[in-house]
Design a protein that fits this description.
Elements: E1 4-8, H1 14-23, E2 32-36, H2 42-50, E3 51-52, E4 64-65, H3 67-70, E5 75-79, H4 86-98, E6 100-101, E7 110-111, E8 115-120, H5 124-129, H6 135-141, E9 144-148, H7 158-169, E10 178-179, H8 181-189, H9 195-209, E11 214-215, H10 226-236, H11 242-256, H12 261-268, H13 272-281
Parallel strand pairs: 1-8, 1-9, 2-5, 5-8, 10-11
Antiparallel strand pairs: 3-4, 6-7
Helix pairs in contact: 4-6, 7-9
């Protein structure tokens, strides 16, 4: 029952990896439960993780088991573990060391057999040095560590992820559209600042709004549609660059003024010194007036 710590940018698919670990382990037939530690206050997180006894606080009308008990013989995924308070870190450390928990308001220790997988998008080692995360808890959590790179650094995973999310959001194969190779190539070449989460949202949207039986390049958002970007580049590929336009305009004015530097400077709205610098930059020889 090795504990695992998964690190990576937000949206890189840390929970997806945690699920794969669970469903490929001897615990696959038991519960996989997940909680975002950064989304709850300390008191709410404690109640969710450890449960509470009836009468422990106002509104606690009945006993409630927490996620540690509910995930017994299974896996508990603690996302954003770096956002926990020092007091919560102490409680988690005890649960991991003793493999037992105590409900809020309870007096009895309850044994639990839970595989804990934690995840963070923060540098926990640096947080330990800064006194913001317990070093002993970090050691307890990181028996096995996985550094998950951003999606832009593992583009070879994108086709498999596309297939996975297509199956997830349209489980009925009969209603599932095909996806063109051109679309797969475009998605593989996109930078994915939102990582796997952005990819899943994109696939879900494509599944919902695809008009035909196949997802084509026209169905993609413009920022991912390489064909659209290429067409936009084509519109301007025969146009000269700005420096060339400036050079042509300067030559036109000089020829119309028969190289009268004073008149040329007046027309251009610049002084003669600037006119000389422009001519020098473009390699134009100013003739004598």
């Amino acid at each position: 029952m090795h504990r695992v710590l998964i690190s990576g940018e937000s949206g890189t698919g840390k929970e997806l990896v945690a699920k794969q670990i669970h469903f490929n382990s001897p615990r696959r037939d038991r519960s996989f439960l997940a909680i975002n530690c950064g989304a709850l206050t300390e008191t709410l997180l404690e109640s969710e993780l450890f449960g509470y006894q009836k009468g422990a606080f106002t509104g606690a009308a009945t006993d409630k088991i927490g996620l540690f008990e509910e995930a017994d013989k299974g896996t508990l995924f603690l996302d954003e573990i770096g956002d926990t308070t020092p007091a919560m870190q102490v409680k988690l450390l005890r649960a991991l060391q003793e493999q037992e928990i105590k409900r809020v308001g309870g007096v009895k220790n309850i044994k639990v057999d839970v595989r804990v997988i934690a995840a963070t998008n923060r540098g926990l080692e640096q947080m330990v040095q800064d006194g913001k995360f317990r070093e002993d808890l970090l050691y307890r959590l990181s028996v096995i560590t996985i550094q998950l790179p951003p999606l832009r650094e593992r583009r070879e995973d994108i086709p498999a992820l596309i297939s996975h999310f297509m199956n997830k959001h349209l489980p009925d194969e009969k209603t599932r559209p095909a996806i063109s190779q051109e679309v797969i190539d475009a998605l593989a070449n996109y930078s994915w600042p939102g990582n796997v989460r952005e990819l899943e949202n994109t696939i879900e949207r494509l599944c919902q709004f695809c008009k035909g039986g196949i997802i084509t390049i026209e169905d993609l958002p413009p920022k991912m549609n390489t064909k659209v970007r290429f067409r936009h580049r084509q519109l301007f590929e025969d146009m000269p660059v700005l420096d060339e336009l400036e050079r042509r305009y300067l030559m036109h004015v000089l020829e119309r003024t028969k190289y009268n530097r004073t008149q040329a400077a007046d027309i251009l709205g610049i002084n003669r010194r600037t006119l000389y610098r422009m001519a020098e930059r473009f390699g134009i020889d100013l003739k004598e007036e």
